[in-house]
Amino acid sequence: xxxxxxxxxxxxxxxxxxxxxxxxxxxxxxxxxxxxxxxxxxxxxxxxxxxxxxxxxxxxxxxxxxxxxxxxxxxxxxxxxxxxxxxxxxxxxxxxxxxxxxxxxxxxxxxxxxxxxxx
Length: 119
Fold this sequence. Notes:
By secondary structure, the chain is mainly α. It is 84% helix and 0% strand. The protein is built from 5 helices and no strands. It has helices at 2-22, 27-37, 39-62, 66-88, 98-118. The longest helix is centred in the middle third of the chain and has 24 residues, at 39-62. The chain starts with a helix and ends with a helix. The mean pLDDT is 94.
């Protein structure tokens, strides 16, 4: 099961980074970033976030420093979702349920990542 979870996690980061943000496949993301940082900087900041998510996908795929990668993913996902819940809830795909799905994703990442780091 380990390879499947690793591939799925990497694909989630890649899709959200490359397709949704860098390629602009999900315009709602630009609205969220615009509300948080202002429309003037939204495109540039979204591009940076998207590229960082692509790097995260590569990091997950590489299995380099699995424990640190796992902790980084959890901190990034939860911080992003808490901020979005507080300031842009109306723009989120699942509204107030977004934080629940983020927590479930983090639980899966934690289970998978910490299990691997002990192997």
